[in-house]
Amino acid sequence: MKSKYLAATAGALLLAVSSLANASLMTLTFDDGDSLSDWIKDRATPAGFEIINNELVMTVNGLITSGHQATQGMQLDIGKANYMSVDMWIDSSWTASGRFAGMWGVAHNADDSRANEFPILEFQNNHNGHTGVAKWESGPGWVLPPSSLYTMDAFNQLEIMLNGGTYQYFVNGNLIHTGASTSAYLGWVILNGYNSMSDEGGYQVRYDNLTFGNVAVPEPSTLAIFTLALAGLTTRRFCKK
Predict the structure, then answer these.
(1) Are residues 141 and 225 in the same domain?
(2) Could you tell me the residue range of the domain that residue 92 belongs to?
C-alpha cells in the first residue's frame, strides 16, 4: 500500500508541474531487463555498464590514470533538451584524492553544431584542496568551492538546466551555481567517472532516474514547485526495491 501511495504521489506531482511549468520530460528508471543499446562510449569505455537490481551500475577501472582516456563513461542522445538530472549514489569508499563520478551535458548551437560548452556536476574528494559536488563551467573551469549540500552513502539528485542564456546547477534541489551560456540546447548527457581509484581496484557508480527533456520555468516560485515534483519522482527508486 505504501509503495502504491508513493508512486501515486510522484505521479500527481509530475502532473502538477507539467501544467505549471510546461514540462516535457522522459525518465529512465533502469529497471531490470531495460535496454542500454542507445548508449555509446564517451572517452573510454567503462569496465562495466549494466543494470543491476533496478539501478544503472558503472564500473570505473583501468591502468590509465591521467589524460583524456582516464575518464570512462557512456553518453546518450537526448534530442534538444534544456534540462537533465540523475540520482547518483555518493559512496564513502571513494577515499582516494581526486575526481570521481558525475553527469556531464553536451551543448549545441541553434544550427545544431556542437557548442564548446560542457556543464558538469561531479563528486570530487580532496581535489584542488576541496571535497564536494563540483561544478564545471566552460571557460572558468572548476568553480570553487564545490557544493557541500550532498549526503554521503545516499542517492543525491544532480540537475542542470539551460534557462534564458544561463546554466543553473542544482544539488538535491538547491541552486548551487549559475553560469553563462550562448548555446541553444543540450543534445547529449554523459555519465562519467574518473580513474581516481584505478590503483585500488577501481570503483562502482550507482545511478538511477535519469530525467531529460524541456521545461519552461520563468519564475522562481514555479522552479520550486518543479523541483518538488522531481523530488517526488525519486520515490520511484525506493518503490522499486
Answers:
(1) no
(2) 24-214
Q: How many independent structural domains does the chain possess?
A: 2
Q: Are residues 104 and 11 in the same domain?
A: no
pTM of structure: 0.85
> 118-147 pLDDT, tens per residue?
999 999 999 999 999 999 999 999 999 999
Are 81 and 140 within one domain? yes
Chain segment 184-205, per-residue pLDDT in tens: 999 999 999 999 888 788 999 9
Residue found under cell 538511477 = 208
Based on the fold, state whether residues 17 and 32 are members of the same structural domain: no
Place of cell 568553480: 143
Q: How large is the C-alpha radius of gyration of the chain?
A: 17
